[in-house]
Amino acid sequence: xxITVSRRRKKPIGESYPCGSFILYNVEPALVxxxxxxxxxxxxxxxxxxxxxxxxxxxxxxxxxxLSITVQGWGSAQLVESGKLPSHPHVDTGTISLVxxxxxxxxxxxxxxxxxxxxxxxxxxxxxxxKPGSWGLGNGYLQDILFQARIHPxxxxxxxxxxxxxxxYHGIRGVVKQAVACGxxxxxxxxxxxxxxxxxxxxxxxxxxxxxxxxxxIEKISFQGGTCYxxxxxxx
Length: 236
Ligand SMILES: [Zn+2]
Fold this sequence. Notes:
Residues 1-8 have low confidence and may be disordered. The chain is of the alpha+beta class. The chain folds into two domains: 2-87, MutM-like, N-terminal (N-terminal domain of MutM-like DNA repair proteins), CATH 3.20.190; 105-230, Helicase, Ruva Protein, domain 3, CATH 1.10.8.50. Helix 3 crosses helix 4. The strands form three sheets. Strands 1-2-3-4-8 form a five-stranded antiparallel sheet, with no helix packed on it. The chain has a three-stranded antiparallel sheet with strand order 5-7-6, with no helix packed on it. 19% of the residues lie in helices and 25% in strands. Zinc ion (ZN) binds at residues 211, 213-214, 216, 231, 233-234.
């Protein structure tokens, strides 16, 4: 498939792959299209009539189909020379992907060992969503990860013992694996406009309902600019 990069030159699109919170598309022979994913919606269109009037980015393929990006909040789309990708200010090509086998407990534990003492003062929530932020984990999946790990969102990183860290690692691994298998959350749409099948255990719909593990009513708090949903009995 070709995309029109300039009016004169057409470039074939190669493989696409995740890199933390970014999606990269190889544009042959030596370019990379970099999409930064925050609150953006990326949609593939077989019919030009479905292209949203309000959009920030549009790619036209030579088979008459399109890719549009609509940003809600923040997002970015850049065309970068492949050779300059390693020095990109935001894309960390050395990021360990949470979806493959190189994300081991040892690699997770090393993150703690590499941190300065003052960095360990941050909350677990902040650590997961912003410290190794290039992972691409946001507030949405964080809630279920902390529930599975039985960790309160306000716990400080320095207070985690080895058991907590093991549960946190397995929480991340389990939730990410299941989310990928389900095609994302049921509140989000995929490239073809279809909702995912991952139903969060802990989200705004679960406030006041019984915890699936112990029956205690699920609570919500505002914390560090986001809303957290948790079981006050299971998560400490
Ligand atoms: Zn509970």
